[in-house]
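TL;DR need structure tokens for one chain.
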Amino acid sequence: MDLISNSKNQNIGLLNTFAQDFTELMKDDSLYDLKIILPNGKTILSHKFCIIIRSAKFRKIIQESNIITEATNPKSSHVKVKSPKIPRSQLMEEISLKKIVGSTFLSDKAVSNAFEELFFYFYHDTLNAGNWDVIMANRENFLAFIQLIKVLEMRHLVEPTLEKIKAYLSSNNAVDLLNGIMKLIDHLIENEENSVAYFYGEAAQKCIEFFKSMNALVETNFRAFSMGNLSLESFNYLMENIYVKDRNNYQETNKFLLVINWFNSTKSDTAAKTQDLFQHIEFPLIQTVTLTTKISDIKRISPKRYQDVLDAVVIQLAKKCAEIESLQDQLKTQYEQI
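>> reply
TL;DR here they are.
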């Protein structure tokens, strides 16, 4: 069964009244701001991303979603409303917009691009140092993003948007990724028990292969590697193996589809147990922490010591793989019972 099924035809009408082009909204300061806030209080949308809510069906979805909506007039104080504890009419009055956009048809591509751009700013929150009223994208907020798409009944946009995010991370986040590997080694020297928590499944297996492949290059490439200048061939190998694209295996990428499908399931006890398991899973394609590297510490390691560190990393990754495989089995069992 297709996890993103029943989407395009069902949502085409909703698209007609969904939103104005993202870029134009970002330029228009005359609009009210609309935030979608999870029960934990974390904002998951940029403060200038406005959603035009016009259809009764759409309003009902928002009202019954148990998500807090906060509307802000740039020239007045915040008005916070928690649904569904108030009548729908009052809710919509509180979050009414200064400017109502006509029912301009938006293609799937246009809305998908809007979400892609949204996530670009979403991910770059910390780089903009306070310019965006959102939190750095991480596992928790990623789940919130998927939940938002479910609320908007636009699940057919999930897969292409995730592909865009993955492509962005794999091409533009080369430095972050390399720093992550270097940080792993640096952290291993200080504390071997907590060095590879965010690697799992196939990604971890591929990292093992990568580190093994680096063994023969350690002495000749030690200086380049420690300075963060992998050869293009070695770096391409790393990128190819960490960002696995094979959707046929119950590994890494399919976790995204599993998360999406979980949000489409009923809120049963089994679903709650599944959610609990998700709390222990990290998504390697989205950084969970801002990684920095103490290059000076790495540079002090001799080639032989560096080789020992690599061997230790392989051992640690192997242990982590075993732990995660067990967790994956539990997750799959729980999921199949929904």
